Amino acid sequence: MNLNSVILMRQEIFLLAILLLLIVGEIFIPNHKKRSMVHLALLLFGIHTMVGFFAIEEASLFGGMFRTNPLIHLFKNVLNVGVFILLLQSADWIQEKLVKDNKGTEFFMLMFSSLLGMYFMISAGDFLMFFIGLELSTLPVAALVAWETSKRISSEAGVKFILSAGLASGVSLFGISLLYATTGSIYFDDIIGLVASNNLTILASILFFSGLAFKISLVPFHFWTADVYEGAPISIASYLSVISKGSAVFILMILMFTVLKPLLHIWEHIIYGIAVATMFIGNLFAIRQHNMKRFLAFSSIAQAGFILLGLITGTQLGTATVVYFVLVYIFSNLAAFGVVQAISLETGKEKRDDYNGLYRTNPNLSLIMMLALFSLAGIPPVAGFFGKFFLFTAAASKGYYFLVFLSVVNVTISLYYYLLIVRAMFIRKSNHPIPFFKSKIYMRLGLIATVLGILALGLYSPLYDYIFDISIIFNK
Amino acid sequence: MDILSLFIIVPVLTILALVFTKGLQQARITAMVGSLIQLGMASNLVIAYFKERAVNDSIMLFTKDMIWFDHFNIHYAIGVDGISVALLGLTAIIVLAGVFISWKMEDLPKEFFISLLVLSTGVYGFFISIDLFTMFVFYEIAVIPMYLLIGIWGSGPKEYSAMKLTLMLMGGSAVLLVGVLGIYFNSNADGGALTFNILEIAKVHIPFAAQKLFFPLTFLGFAVLGALFPFHTWSPDGHASAPTAVSMLHAGVLMKLGGYGIFRIAMFLLPLGAMEWSWFFIILAAIGVVYGAFGAVRQTDLKYINAYASVSHLGLVLFALLTFNKIAWNGAILQSLSHGLLTALFFALIGMIYGRTHTRDINKLGGLMKTLPFIGAVYVITGLAYLGLPGFSGFIAEMNIFVGAFENPDMFHRVLTILAVSSIVVTAVYILRLVGKIMMGPIIDEHHHDLPKVTWYEKTGILLLLIPIIGMGVAPIWLSDMIMASLQPFIQGVLTH
């Protein structure tokens, strides 16, 4: 391990250092000062996020197990920014609820080790590293989901999550072993040349796919989503729907566009079907939800269906549009979850009807929520519109006009239920509206960051151009 | 700053200024000043256009092009011809009139004017765009504020109407998106680069199979907004629930986006597809003309009457466009302008009547001429203009449409034209009956003897609309010339295909 490899792995090393520092802090900081741990963790992670923006060139380490390049690096930065905003939004919750029970540091440690797992997962150069990363990113989340152990619903969510995740990982691992059996290698670079379109390989890739489909909560692997989101603390639901889903989409895309590229002609049909099913089921079930967390769960399932439109292409355009959409989606969903979190923290209310008349008491929160929902629905001029339009363009570039048509039908359906929230906030009146309140500084920073992201990402076009240019890496 | 981008910048600045206002007084003054500047800009644009047209005979004037998303070849490209200049003027007039009519907007005034101006920004942007993507963006920006405008400030079953309207229009735009993508990916048919630029695509020979597939999608996407039968059902409910200024803007301007888009995009870019499909859509349009007229006869709510009348009159625009005749096309554009002004005026008057009597049911109204002479007189004038009395804008437009449509020598078009002409008679029935019932006649309700006087801001709003209506009727020649000249590229591109 020389200096060069330290530089190439600096994101991972830095995050690990933060993790260890926090453990040291946990030991040496006295209990009555534990609140400062939150500031410390935020500060360290903020620095980490900033430092991450220094460029990294393309390279691979440990004989090809670990690789990095501008696109992977960019995606790690995207995850960092997402987690940082998420931490800002949860800081008050952690200070008020967790530190009291002496569990503040554990929260950060679990989340950071999960993030570390994602780093390794998307940087993986072989299936072993990939699988370790996948597990490392999933297991700590199970503990986070079951955080509020005193609540039945939270424990139930934890059990549900760990069981489904375990099953998915097992199936995925079985797929990997079959792939090893047919090709004799676990290194991505070797397998690319060896994958042949025979039945065993196809079966292997389908099994492997289902593991990731679970994390992205594609239909029919979505059953855990709503229950887990509902039971988990809002920060964790947000983390699952944004960060965890984003990283899984990214690695799935890389693998499909490189390792499984020879099977793309078969994948096209599978992804087509799954995309249509995911969009329709996510959207139709979202209409019926009254709990905001469950609602956002189904909305995020539907969004995952849209992402598949970019995956179906297997081109540079597809890569760029998927990465761009995930980036946009992270900001939009974080904004929506942020508002839900702010309101839940202040009043404990999480139902749609509780939002009636929100605009008249809390105009700023309502506007942020509206912006987030419009972005999720794909209404210009906010970023979500550009994200969706480009995804559709990618699918249309391969001639999938009918799929695009089905997607725009779904966009219209989704608009209906997003407008239901807008209706509650702006149009409906309530006898007991949520009273006016001022969020704390961290929460406000977290929400402002998402708003800036939602507004800037679409109108500032050089960002997309940059993503497109570096997307060439996996489509040579 | 170029003369066209101002049409986006000024409304946006007005919106930003509105954000910092407090209370009704500040909000309405700010909105008024902003819309007044827009009207000034529109007048200035008309003058500048005539000057420029004299020395410049390219299709679009004042063009400007800025790269936006390089890899998709998406540009912020703007430019105007006579048609868009006329429609921009129409928009500016109606927005200002709408602000005056909403002078007493008590509930959340700041938010109301902001939404109104977002809508107008979208409309302006749509009319000046010559890039499909930019145009589509502005189209959606124009539609979405309707949800809040109707939902928050509307009346009656406003939640239902707002949702229905928004979903149908956004559904239309979703279908349109597929059409736009289809056009985009066929824009390299002659070997060039993929492009969203309308003028460049118009030069490309898009394969017939693609035209045949994407024309109906593009057409329907816009036709939903243009209230084509049977996709018009959002319109009566939406208009009836919307507050006055929103009905004015929506029927007056927003619905014109449909016809304009069909002409500028669906027919101009996909002429072969248009020829192939015209027989089908022209039947729907003709049904809409007659159905809308009969629907209006049947209604008793003033706003519903007007909404169905709009379906009929805008059906006529689509009908004229699909006849592929330049005189009819000229009539279609004139009809768009004329209907925009007339229907906005109608909705303004209805709003004023409703504000005073608190009913829109014609069975409960009568003898308003005696108590509200100003409203009564203008109502009668508007009604007469609406049914196509010579000397007003409506006559010029419908005359052109029917003369042009009848020039098609085949039986099919002639029968449809006769069918559409018959709607004039039905229009006369419901307009005259209405005027007789609520304006003349005895005063039915005791409370209607003593109604509040018409205020200065209402009169200003009314006159803003009335003057151009008479102007168009008395001296249509400039406008007609301006439109005719701009029809040349369409005649070359579409008719001689």
Short description:
By secondary structure, chain A is mostly helical. Chain A is built from 20 helices and 2 strands.
Name the descriptors.
heterodimer; A: 476 residues; mainly alpha; 20 helices; globular; B: 497 residues; 75% helix; ubiquinone binding (chain B)
Written description of the protein model:
The complex is a heterodimer of chains A (476) and B (497). Chain A has 476 residues and is mainly alpha-helical. Chain A has one domain. Helix content of chain A is 77%, strand content 1%. Chain A has a two-stranded antiparallel ribbon. The mean pLDDT of chain A is 88. Chain B has one domain. Chain B is 75% helix and 3% strand. In chain B, β1 and β2 (74-80) form a beta hairpin. Chain B is globular. Chain A binds chain B through residues 317, 320, 374, 379-381, 385-386, 389-390, 392-393, 396-397, 401, 404-405, 408-409, 411-412, 415-416, 419, 422-423, 426-427, 461, 464-465, 468, and chain B through 68-72, 74, 133, 137-138, 140-141, 144, 147-148, 151-152, 158-159, 162-163, 166-167, 170-171, 174-175, 177-178, 181-182, 184-185, 213.
What is this structure's SSE topology?
The complex is a heterodimer of chains A (476) and B (497).
Chain A: H1 3-8, H2 10-28, H3 35-51, E1 59-61, E2 66-68, H4 70-98, H5 104-123, H6 127-145, H7 152-183, H8 188-194, H9 199-216, H10 223-231, H11 234-257, H12 264-287, H13 292-311, H14 316-347, H15 358-361, H16 363-377, H17 383-397, H18 401-427, H19 441-459, H20 462-470
Antiparallel strand pairs in A: 1-2
Helix pairs in contact in A: 2-3, 2-5, 3-4, 4-5, 4-11, 4-14, 4-19, 5-6, 5-11, 6-7, 6-11, 7-9, 7-10, 9-11, 10-13, 11-13, 11-14, 12-13, 12-18, 13-14, 13-17, 13-18, 14-16, 14-17, 14-19, 14-20, 16-18, 17-19
Chain B: H1 6-19, H2 23-55, E1 61-69, E2 74-80, H3 82-101, H4 109-128, H5 132-143, H6 145-153, H7 158-185, H8 198-203, H9 208-225, H10 234-241, H11 244-269, H12 271-298, H13 302-322, H14 326-357, H15 368-371, H16 373-386, H17 393-406, H18 411-439, H19 456-474, H20 477-495
Helix pairs in contact in B: 1-2, 1-4, 2-3, 2-4, 3-4, 3-11, 3-14, 3-19, 4-5, 4-6, 4-11, 5-7, 6-7, 7-9, 7-10, 9-11, 9-12, 10-13, 11-12, 11-13, 11-14, 12-13, 12-18, 13-14, 13-18, 14-16, 14-17, 14-19, 14-20, 16-18, 17-19
